[in-house]
Amino acid sequence: MAILLIFITLLHLFTMALLFIATMDKSWWVWSSTEKSDIWYNCRLDNETETWLCASLEETEWLQAVQVLMVLSAVFCSISFLIFLAQLFIMSKGGLFYLTGVCQAFAGLTTLTAILIYTLHNKEILQGPRKLSSGHFSYCFILAWLCVPLLMWSGIMYIYLRKRE
Question: What is the pLDDT of residues 130-156, one digit of tens each?
């Protein structure tokens, strides 16, 4: 039982770290090695100073939906971890971690929804003079996709997990 608790805790922390990186890092869409975009900023590398110059993206309804859903997903995942820790110490023997599992599953669903919106409406989100055909999705987008099955799987594991002595 202790090994299972350690595994599920490490899985939760790993997934939470991936989710925070996917939400906050600057690489959802890449046009070139010197120009990229995320859900917050468009950035380009200034070759003279070797620094990234970033400007806020133009606010659209689709972009705001993606931003809100990714932040909500990170919040659900964090709350789920706190609930798990509380249930671990407070819950009586034989209890199930339903609330933790439901919060984790909601985190997975909100991440999936954000990614689908970004995928289907990236033309509206990434407005500008550049063509989308000259760019591609980047590692933060892939990390967000990786988080979806991990969040859903851990949510299901929490629902079936029983507290034992």
Answer: 666 678 888 999 999 999 999 999 998
